[in-house]
Amino acid sequence: MSQTDARITELEIQMSHQTQVIDDLSDIVARQDIELAKLARKMTLLLENAADAQSSGGVVLADQKPPHW
């Protein structure tokens, strides 16, 4: 094997590894995007529930002292 062939083979190996890393990172980012969307929806629902409780005169639990006080 000539030096040029060995160099090309090494570059192909590196490119293969980099392609795998890029694919793995892409999968991770896609999963994180889904999780962020879920968390944003939950946060919106929580804020809406808190706003409804305050506007309806409901008791906000954060304003109450725990029973042991």
Can you offer a commentary on this structure?
- The chain has 69 residues and is mainly α.
- Helix content is 77%, strand content 0%.
- The protein has one helix at residues 3-55.
- The longest helix is centred in the middle third of the chain and has 53 residues, at 3-55.
- It starts with a helix and ends in a 14-residue tail after the last helix.
- The model has no long low-confidence stretch (mean pLDDT 89).
In the predicted model, the low-confidence regions spanning at least 5 consecutive residues are none
> How many individual helices?
1
Helix content: over 70%
Q: What is the structural class? A: mainly alpha
How would a crystallographer describe the biggest sheet?
none
- The outline comes out as rod-shaped
Q: Give the SSE order as H and E letters.
A: H
Strand tally is 0
Arithmetic mean of pLDDT: 89
Measured between the Cα atoms of the first and last residue, the distance is: 81 Å
Rg, alpha carbons: 27 Å
Strand % is under 5%
